[in-house]
From TrEMBL:
GO molecular-function terms, A-Z: peptidase activity
Annotated source species: Brevundimonas mediterranea
InterPro entries cross-referenced by the UniProt entry: Zincin_1, Zincin_1_sf
Keywords for this protein: Hydrolase, Protease
Pfam family, one: Zincin_1
Gene3D superfamilies referenced in this protein's UniProt entry, alphabetically: 3.30.2010.20
UniProt xrefs under CDD domains: MMP_ACEL2062
Keyword Transport: no
Domain of life: Bacteria
TM region(s), chain numbering: none
UniProt protein name: Putative Zn-dependent protease with MMP-like domain
Biological process according to GO: proteolysis
Hydrolase as UniProt keyword: yes
Length: 136
């Protein structure tokens, strides 16, 4: 695919993975070190079981998800049985990006990634939103 035709296609799962990795690599070293061995996974949508567990009917409503034992609870629970994972859902992120039109795709991917890493650190949605509001 040439550069001229590359803009005619929606970013692939691999493109999203690259943008997520670039966003993570751009974070301060202390933040990356604290995140540890979190695994990033890019899927088009959350699977049916995940949506059912979260009581979400429209798969476009979920752009990202943290799955694992947050860092704050690990010491009391012992080692995690499986690695912590951050899921980014390509199609809902693309949909939000197109609807908003006021943010770049890389910036939106970084926002969702950082939000989910916040859950990895043990922050609630309310905690994350308060931090975001203070940053604005």
């Amino acid at each position: 695919m040439t550069d001229a035709t590359a803009d005619l296609f929606a970013p692939s799962l691999d493109d999203f993975a690259r943008l997520a990795r670039e966003a993570f690599d751009a974070l301060p070293a202390e933040f990356r070190a604290a995140a540890g061995e979190v695994v990033f996974r890019i899927d088009d949508f959350a699977d049916e079981q995940t949506l059912a567990d979260l009581e979400i009917e429209d798969p476009f409503e979920l752009t990202g998800l943290y799955h694992g034992v947050d860092i704050g609870r690990r010491d009391s629970l012992g080692p995690a049985a499986e690695p912590s994972r951050v899921f980014l859902y390509r199609r809902p992120i693309l949909d939000e990006w197109c609807e908003r039109g006021d943010v770049g795709l890389a910036e939106l991917i970084a926002h969702v990634l950082i939000h989910e890493i916040g859950h990895h650190f043990g922050l609630s949605d309310d905690d994350i939103h308060a931090i975001e509001d203070d940053a604005d």
